[in-house]
Amino acid sequence: SSRERSSASTASASRLICARNGAKSFVFNGVQIIDYCGPYEVFGQAGYEVFTVAPSGKPVRSHEGLLIQPHVTFANSPPLDILVVPSAMDTKRLLADRALVAFIKEHGARARYVASHCAGAFLLGKAGLLDGRRATTYIGGAEPLQKMFPKARVEGDKHVVVDGDLVTTIGGAVSYEGSLALLERVVVVLAIVLYGNRLSKLP
User: Fold this and answer.
1) Distance between CA atoms of residues 75 and 84, nearest Å
2) Quick one: average pLDDT of 104-112?
3) Which of 22, 74, 99, 122 has the most CB within a 10 Å radius?
4) Residue 10: pLDDT band with limits 50, 70, 90
5) Can you give the pLDDT at residue 48?
6) CB-based contacts of 123: which residues, under 8 Å, 6+ apart?
7) What DSSP element (H or E) covers 100?
8) Distance separating alpha carbons of residues 21 and 48, to the nearest angstrom
9) Is the dihedral of CA 179, 112, 19, 2 positive or negative?
10) pLDDT, tens digit, for every residue of 126-165?
11) What is the sign of the dihedral through the CA atoms of 102, 114, 173 and 38?
12) Contact at 8 Å (CB) between 170 and 137?
């Protein structure tokens, strides 16, 4: 039926635009669980495959004590189309982790979309992904973020900042709002692709 053909086309374009291997949320010991679960739930409920990537295959313990089993590791992670970087209370420890920052730099530069929540913006900055970009971070963190990464354009008065393929938020419950904003951008691009495909098939 036409509805089935439409659904098949949408699913095909969804895989093309959203991710070759689904949306991926980056996790590490001490991760703030809401900054991780918000994106996971939003994209999961929207029908996208969501994976977690961590330094190793060992379970990661969130700041609140929840154990998370990563799907893939730094070593075997495929290219990412959507990279989500959550937050942690011990940001200094994470910024000093060269392997972690290198992973974010490499995969973030290649991803179609990148998002961070709360202090995750500091990791993006350390990876050079905020240079010349508009961004926000946790309440009270705008000044330190701007000072540490002067090439960034920090907008501390905003809870969610969307700058093209980059979405940053203040974290917490707002990670849901930011994830919905990112999903909206993905869906808009998907709609454009579908429309273009249909136009190309016109006689």
Assistant:
1) 18
2) 92
3) 122
4) very low
5) 82
6) 85, 91, 94, 95, 100, 101, 104, 116
7) helix 98-110
8) 10
9) positive
10) 999 999 999 999 999 999 999 999 999 999 999 999 999 9
11) negative
12) yes
The type of residue at 97 is D
Residue type, 45: Q
Residue type, 170: I
* Structural tokens at position 139: 């309440």
Query: Could you tell me which residues come within 8 angstroms of residue 1 by beta carbon, excluding any fewer than 6 positions away?
Result: none
> Which residues form the catalytic set?
118
CA angle 69, 124, 86 (to 5 degrees): 35
176 in Cβ contact with 42 (< 8 Å): yes
**What's the token pair of residue 110?**
């290649």
Give the C-alpha separation, 69 to 65, whole Å.
13
Token code pair at residue 42: 């939003």
Written as six digits, the tokens of 77 are: 């992670």
Count of all residues that appear for the chain in the document: 203
